[in-house]
Design brief:
39% helix; alpha+beta
Length: 784
């Protein structure tokens, strides 16, 4: 009873401590950084392969030590980021990883583009969605070949895996990839996920063409190897077996293997339905508007194709309450027809075509984007911009009317009072004088601008198309006067510039100053005088984004579009480098190589009944940006991990204190326990009623109170080492010192200690090498 009561108190205390669970966020550049996965995976392999102590299976035992084992599993499997820190500090290893990544970029084959589908023509009219992907089996084969070749010839890679005890994990990883590749090798060049509606319930299947016999046996063998310990197994049928098959409660995936196609689903009924339409001479989905659009994407050559019948999806939205349907009508999305996407990869580039089509003319919000036209505002935007965008909108007064119609008059109930106070009419004096062309430039990446003192960073420009410059300037002067802001006027190169300083200067740096000018039908607003001059110079002398080769093309003609989004990855990468630790900044070029990042561009086009867009992205640059963002986050993750370990260490020390009090109460002639081994279970882990003794009291779990943690020895848990040092005579122990110190080589980590007064004390510095004495512990600062 004494054990049980104090144990519950200990658990309550531990649960009160803040616990942070981290997930690895570092993206892997294909198999090029597969070894980054293997190092932490080794811990999982070891924890699963380690035999459990006797009695650990029971979760209802009265013994507290056994109960703690179940809760201790999380602590054993918590992710540890030290392996990544070790990798980044190893220049030879980083050079090898860079070489590996370079081979992957240059040698990995892209799946060939497809010009037709054998599956699409069979699909029924009820098809609601469709997504077709290439078979990446050749890419996977080549990636594994490169990985194995590099591993054989690279001593730093092998040494790293050995140091991280990831040899077994590496072999398991390769075996898993090999099994998946073997299954993919039976399939054709396309894998399709498609589905439809039964009433208002959606269901789907995976379909692929079979190019050689033997798939059923391969699937069963893979299932046997992957699901050895699972109660659910893959059910694989041939056509004659499917006829007699029945649904099972809580069944796993089911697969139909035909001579021509393989179908995977979650129910036997879905397999039968798919098999029936695959046997048909031709499905009616191919003759629908969406089916025809997908077929057109194939004809142009594609890697990935996807589409959805949005009209039928909108039909699933209930009419009650009626406001829902009314809102769809007002926003213009009630008459949406379908969505389609096509992707093509070639030469390190990924291009996409996206399309949303409506049943009839666009209305409401869907109609705000105007038809394509010259994007003249970009002539004031620098080609060196970090981010640039331009929109061509329809009449701004009409957009305001749409807003009032959608939200209701109450949304602008205060507008008349504001207009009267400012002596301005929003529609007539401002919106009617703008053409609807809007462009924006951010010169510095957001993470770089945020670190600048106020008034010194975040350089930007806003460019507006203007139909009545004189009238708009008159309105602006009136608004400035009402706001009691003075504008300074100056003439440079025949253009009048207006400067407006902020009425209150910030604590750090000069007050921000906004500058604007009118020229050639545009209003240009810049965050500095230099930015305003730069905009005028770009417009008159060249060097603007509008005239860059990326947009102007071979003929030098300005691009015509409805929407444009431009991202220059170079400034982003440079800004990210500034936010990294020195060791990461030094390691990154070796990982990414010396490839010059290229800008990403997205263009949108609007017509009467549809919105269409294209993107052109650099695959390796996108991967680099993702990797760098993860590396920037890594210090925060490591810091969080350290904080979590600190908190867990303090909680574990309190558990030891409670265990010591319990031991003293249970064995008063012995006094306090002299070591952690005495507080924990015996070597076999057996903590039955007869197994609890004064030599092994089973008051701590096997991780913290291991039988090997005798006098002067350490037990390790959650990144910390623990030890108990008894203050004893030949007959009993009148006191103890419990010490907790970081397990790694931390120059300024938190260590903890406690003596029989049960006060937890802490000290910041290098890890303790030898368990503390009582005097040394009492000299540390108590935790408040």
């Amino acid at each position: 009873m004494r054990h049980s009561y104090l144990w519950n108190k200990t658990v309550q205390r531990e649960q009160a401590e803040p616990q942070v669970r981290l997930t690895r966020t570092l993206p892997m550049l294909a198999v090029a950084v597969a070894f980054l996965f293997l190092a932490p995976a080794a811990d999982a392999v070891q924890s699963h392969s380690k035999p459990q102590a006797k009695g650990a299976q029971s979760q209802t035992t009265r013994n507290p030590s056994t109960a703690r084992k179940a809760g201790d599993t999380k602590a054993q499997n918590e992710p540890d980021m030290t392996w990544l820190q070790d990798a980044l500090k190893n220049p030879e290893l980083m050079t090898e990883v860079g070489h590996l990544e370079e081979r992957m970029v240059k040698e990995l084959p892209y799946p060939a583009t497809r010009n037709q589908s054998r599956i699409l023509p069979h699909l029924p009219e009820s098809t609601l969605f469709y997504a077709a992907f290439p078979n990446y089996v050749q890419t996977i084969h080549k990636a594994m070949q490169i990985w194995q070749e590099e591993l054989r010839t690279s001593a730093p890679l092998r040494d790293f895996l050995k140091k991280q005890k990831a040899d077994d994990a590496e072999a398991t990883f390769e075996q898993g990839v090999q099994k998946i590749s073997e299954v993919l090798d039976y399939l054709g060049d396309e894998v399709v996920i498609t589905g439809g509606l039964k009433g208002k319930d959606a269901g789907g299947v995976l379909i692929a063409e079979i190019k050689k016999p033997g798939l059923k046996a391969a699937l069963l063998q893979m299932d046997e190897e992957f699901n050895k310990k699972s109660s659910q197994h893959l059910r694989v049928f041939e056509p004659q077996e499917l006829a007699a098959a029945s649904e099972l409660p809580a069944q796993g995936p089911v697969v139909l293997v035909r001579q021509d196609f393989v179908v995977a689903g979650i129910s036997v009924a879905s397999l039968r339905e798919a098999s029936a339409y695959l046997d048909s001479s031709g499905g009616s989905f191919a003759s629908s508007a969406l089916g025809k659009r997908l077929a057109q994407a194939y004809q142009s050559g594609t890697n990935t194709v996807a589409g959805a019948d949005l009209q039928r999806l909108m039909g699933l939205i209930p009419d009650n309450p009626p406001q829902t349907r009314m809102m769809l009508e007002k926003t213009g999305f009630a008459n949406v027809k379908y969505f389609a996407l096509a992707n093509k990869m070639a030469g390190g580039k990924s291009s996409n075509e996206v399309e949303i089509v409506f049943n009839g003319p666009r209305k409401g919000i869907a109609s705000w984007i105007a038809a394509p036209g010259p994007m003249g505002a970009l002539d004031f935007i620098s080609a060196r911009a970090s981010v640039a965008e331009e929109l061509r909108l329809k009449s701004l007064p009409l957009i305001l009317d749409d807003v009032v119609d959608i939200v209701g008059p109450q949304a602008l109930a205060m507008l008349p009072q504001m207009e009267a106070r400012m002596n301005v009419n929003l529609k007539q004096d401002i919106l009617s004088k703008l053409s609807g062309e809007i462009a924006f430039e951010l010169q510095q990446p957001p993470m770089d601008a945020m670190q600048k003192p106020t008034g010194q960073g975040g350089a930007f420009k806003v460019v507006l198309g203007v139909s009545d410059p004189a009238g708009l300037q008159k309105t602006l002067k009136g608004l400035l006067a009402q706001a009691r802001l003075q504008s300074e006027e100056r003439i440079e190169d025949g253009v009048t510039f207006y400067s407006i300083a902020s009425p209150s200067a910030p604590a750090a740096g000069p007050a921000p100053e906004f500058n604007y000018f009118f020229v050639d039908g545009y209003l240009v607003l810049a965050s500095s005088r230099e930015g305003a001059r730069d905009a005028l110079s770009l417009h008159r002398k060249g060097g603007s984004l509008a005239k860059s080769p990326l947009l102007a093309g071979a003929q030098g003609q300005p691009v015509k579009a409805s929407v444009l989004a431009y991202q220059n990855s170079g400034p982003f990468l440079a800004a990210m480098m500034k936010n990294m630790s020195p060791e990461m900044a030094a390691a990154l070029p070796k990982i990414l190589g010396q490839n010059e990042p290229t800008p990403n561009l997205a263009l949108g086009y609007a017509d009467e009944s549809g919105l269409r867009g294209t993107t052109n992205n650099n695959i390796s640059t996108d991967a680099s940006v993702g990797l760098m963002a993860a590396l920037i986050a890594l210090p925060a993750l490591v810091r969080t991990r350290i904080d979590a370990n600190d908190s867990a260490a303090a909680a574990s020390l309190r558990t030891i204190i409670t265990a010591e009090v319990t031991y003293l109460t249970s064995y008063p002639k012995k006094g306090y326990a002299p070591t952690l081994a005495v507080l924990g279970p015996p070597a076999g882990g057996e903590c039955s009623e007869s197994g609890v003794t004064a030599a092994h009291a089973c008051l701590l779990d096997e991780k913290l109170g291991n039988a090997t943690c005798t006098a002067g020895k350490w037990c390790e848990k959650s990144g910390y080492r623990f030890s108990v040092r008894g203050i004893c005579t030949t007959t009993n122990c009148s006191g103890y010192v419990a010490t907790a110190t970081p397990a790694g080589d931390v120059p300024a980590g938190k260590s903890f200690c406690s003596v029989k007064d049960a006060v937890v004390r802490t000290h910041i510095g290098p890890p303790v090498k030898v368990p503390l004495t009582a005097a040394e512990c009492r000299a540390w600062k108590p935790i408040e």
